[in-house]
Structure formats: C-alpha cells, structure tokens
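re the bet — no i am not wrong, look at it urself. input seq straight from the record:
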Amino acid sequence: MDVGQHYLEDALNEFRRLKKSADKAMAQVSDAEFFRKLGADENSIALIVKHIAGNLHSRWEKFLTTDGEKPERKRDSEFEIDPDDARASLIERWEHGWAILFRELDPLKSEDLLRTVLIRSEPYTVVRAINRQLTHYGEHVGQIVFLAKHLAGAKWQTLSIPRGKSEEFNAEWGAKFKT
C-alpha cells in the first residue's frame, strides 16, 4: 500500500470515528436536551447536527466535480430551528450527509489526492479539502460531546477510558500487542 492509499483509509477511519463519537453522545440525551441551548446565542446539539448535515451535503455531493459550497445551500438557516425540525428528521439529514461523504471518499485513489476541488470558488487539493473537513467536523463533534455530557449529567456514559481506569486499560491494551 502506498502512502496516499494509507492516508485515504486513515481519513475514512477518522471520519467514521468522529461520527461514532457524536452518535454515542447524542444517544445519551433526551429530545428536550437535544434541542436545549445553554445560552441565547449558543448552539444546541440539534443546531450543530443541522449545520454538519448541511455542510456534509454541500461539501461532498459530487465532491470532485462541483464546488463544495452548493448554490442551494442556505447556511444561515442551519442555525435556526424550524417548526418541522424534529430530532428524527435532523438525524435523517445527518445520516444522509455522512452517507454522501463515505460514498464520495471511498472510491478515491492515491492519484486523486492532488486533484483540485473548489470550496466557495477557492481551489484546494483533495488532501487539503479532506483535512479541512476533518478539522471542521472534529470541532463540532467535540461540541456535541461536550453538550451531551453536560446535559446528560450523572447518567453520562464515557465514550473513552473511564476515569481511574487508565492503567488497567493500558495494561490490557498493551497485552494485545505483545508477542
């Protein structure tokens, strides 16, 4: 395997890991908590999901051949909850957006990495565009996890190594790699 193919596989794994963390965090909050804002000018989990879903669709639909900022995208509306915005419909958009990303990235090859794509008419290499989105989604997934943990309170189930369990985890994990 060449470094380009390794990069693409790793990028896909990181996107999957981000989605999984967000999904696990969101599963721990009620519908009311999903829509709750901590302050008037802040985003709820619902708004972040709506924004990421819009971004996923815009950036990844026909990734190699169209500008990543689609003319039909109404970004500002992604930060407003409409009367039709139920949790189920927002999650459906979220899932659809991620499906587009995986559909578009999965077939890419090393030779595609230096191709040029556009985002808001600005040229990016495919590598730079992927890294840009990994960073963007990572920031927002961190917000989702933070909000979910805050809102879930005592019922929160950790998404990583539980406090006080690092040594135990490291010993078990390390044992898997010893020969």
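see?? The two ends are 25 Å apart (CA to CA). told u. also The chain is about 55% helix and 5% strand. so pay up
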